[in-house]
Amino acid sequence: MYTISGKVEDAKTGEGLPFVNVYFQGSTIGTQTDDQGKFIIRKIKGGKYRLVASMVSFKPDVQVLTVDKNIEEISIKLEEDIKALKELKIVAKRDKEWEANFKEFSREFLGNNFKKKDVKIANKEVVNFERKNEILSASSFEPIIIENKKMGYKVFFILDYFQKDQRKIGINGIPRFEVMTPKDKVEEELWEKNRKAAYLGSIKHFFKSVLYRQIKEQGFSSEYLETDPEYKVFNEEEAYGKHPSLKFNDSTLVYKTNVENMYLVNFAHRVFVRYWNRNRWVERSILKQEVPIEVDELGNLFDPMSVEISGGMADRRMANLLPFDYEIGDLLDFDFEELTLLLPKEVDEKFRNPREEIEIENLQPYYLAGENLNVDLNIKDIQSGFSATFSKILYADFIDLGKGEIINNFKLKVNNAQAKLGFELPKNLTTGNYQLRMYTNWMRNFSEAGFLKVDFTVFGKNFMEEMPDNINIGLEDIKVHVEANTALVNGLKSRILIESLDNFGRNMPTSFKIVSPKNNEVVVSATDSLGMCLVEFIPTEDGEYKILGGNKSFKMPAVEKKGMVLAADYISSTEKLRMQIQNKGLTIDSVNIAIVKSGQIVYYNKIINNLNSYVLNLDIPFQSSNLSIFLLDEDFEVIAEKTQLVDSMSKDYFIKSNLTFKEPISYMFDYDRKYEYEKGLKVSGTVLKSNGTVFIKPVDIKFMVSDDVSDTTNVKPQIFDINTLDKFEIEGLDFFGKKQLTYICNKCEVNLDTIPSLPPVFAEQRPINWTLLMNKGEWESLQKRKEMVEDLFKNENLSEAEIIHEKPKKENKNDKKVFIIEGFYKP
């Protein structure tokens, strides 16, 4: 058993918050902070948990904890929930429409199998509704309190998401359980009976039965499904099929993980589950695995969204929800040491951390200099596919690709995983190719390939004169993509994708030849209408191979004398992924294969490197998804990496699209991460003596953050008292534009940390895509747009766009020591 402790503070003031509920999500395990904001929770089993801190009028904070030792000094900072505070003051009108919506919400949220007097929502006034196009959505500005007198629990549910349409219902949130006190022994026994009834046949009961290899003994019957049926039109004989390999085998499903009391369950297909109780089939359910399923020793799902549930199990709603620490002695003992450890610790650590992905909406293919650019941005968690609420700051760079320069960079405020960027394109921009590059501080731990990069064209004020009379289209470039990003190896077969592009960067068909260093023709072929051609190629000569096409010569990747080649495809079978590994000259004892879907490992294997070639045929438990395949050496460093598209219709995407060869957003991760999540604006720096030497004893510094002349808001100065020996950090800032940071300190000098260096930008000489204006309608539209911004070009002394890399500026105003600091950009 372990103990955790820490402190909850107001993110704005830094003061400890009393009476905050701190608990493990979905459990009865928790406590409240004391008058200084401190908390301690004892007697915790080892495992993986979500630690929640919540308080009315503040946004809840959720942290994932791996508990394998005592954890001290957990720091939690709660942000004020402005939206909730407003809704507390103005309660929406509760009319007949609201009452009808609440009745429907209550039925779907709580379920039906209970008496109304036994289970009810005690504070229904906190729920608000919105109905659009037959879709009912619900939200609440306080936790919904459920009094469950059927099972003896009071549940506080922070509603994150509720949506019902004609086909399905989605519910997500954070529950906290309190055990009610029974009035007598009879009620206590009744509650225990009802809790057991809610447990039997539940998803928790099923996964515990899987974990302990006692599916049949616990009354479950389970088979894989050969088809993908809708539950309402389910045909058992058609769904099961006759294939014997589809029979459900519970002895090969479960693996150990590197986290105490946590296990991994992997289904190969959808699973049809029937639960037998008292001589009748009670429930029929279908389970679909979305990502690898993490389960604790009691059968609890760490991520409820890892399994899509339809049928009887899905009908069990909040009225039948049990806390995850509910136990029942229903299974025989099982020695979990018999289970196979799925992943070496070195591999597990590389993939354990969550990933963010940025999506953009409303970006146009081209703009006119002086126009406004407005886009909406969403941040998603790659692992779950849902909104990512980790980072509160998003960085955006506006880049001139032709010059390789950042014209401007923006610091955007993220609310509910969403941000907006809107700015006027400089009126002096010349016609050229430009880019928006976006990332969070956390994303900088990974490959820059994970940043969002979107290109577009800007036409300058003289575009009408610049546009050539005749637009000639011809072959400009041929790119060679080697499968799995590996180099060509002499004597080993590699698959390469030839991609031909015209002088405007668009794919185009062309004929080509591959020529050896001795000028022998090795391949003669042509790209298709999409500008693609897949070639199996065995280099047999040392030196440089070339591609000849359109009277031009293009370089091939270098040919190495030794190395390893990875090939994978999904076109030979509808159920298996075929992989081939070839080795020439690499003297390593073993290689590791890891396959990743949505940021989580779905397959791992270690192969002894004693052959020149290996072929693996792997069952694919996923439909319509992208897999990232890694080949790792003995030290778990990447030898090869590729993206593989798996399609349930067995279409040959391998040839028809370059998606298979697209450079993946690398999931390989240094778990000694350098960059952290940014939860808000902050200022940090160091303090030294006036002569530049360090202090021997801590010194007191008073900081004041006040309005700068360029910021029109009228807010009283924020004051921060810091006592430090050298480093300091001011958190809880939240403003747009610029502010003044003034400090008072006796005989000391303050230096602020500068913005971390931006990833480098390199010039790319691409032709202007004048074909965007070849359509008569597009040309006329741009002329009208030009007229709308014409006044912007009149009597303007246009110089080149200013390159902006602002750092904190230090000024002296009346001998005061002042910095000018940057806040969020306001679109």
**N-end to C-end Cα span:** 51 Å
Low-confidence stretches: 229-246, 648-659, 797-808
Radius of gyration: 31 Å
Helicity range: 10-25%
Structural notes for this entry:
With 827 residues, the protein is mainly beta. The protein has 10 helices and 52 strands. The strands form 14 sheets. Strands 8, 9, 10, 11, 12 and 13 form a 6-stranded antiparallel sheet that branches. A 5-stranded mixed sheet has the order 22-28-27-24-25. Strand 12 and strand 13 (169-179) form a beta hairpin. It is globular. The two termini are 51 Å apart. The model is unreliable at 229-246, 648-659 and 797-808 (pLDDT under 50).
Question: Care to give the gist of this entry?
Answer:
The protein is mostly beta strands and 827 residues long. It has ten helices and 52 strands. Strand 38 and strand 39 form a beta hairpin.
Give short descriptive properties of this protein.
single chain; 827 residues; mainly beta; five-stranded mixed β-sheet
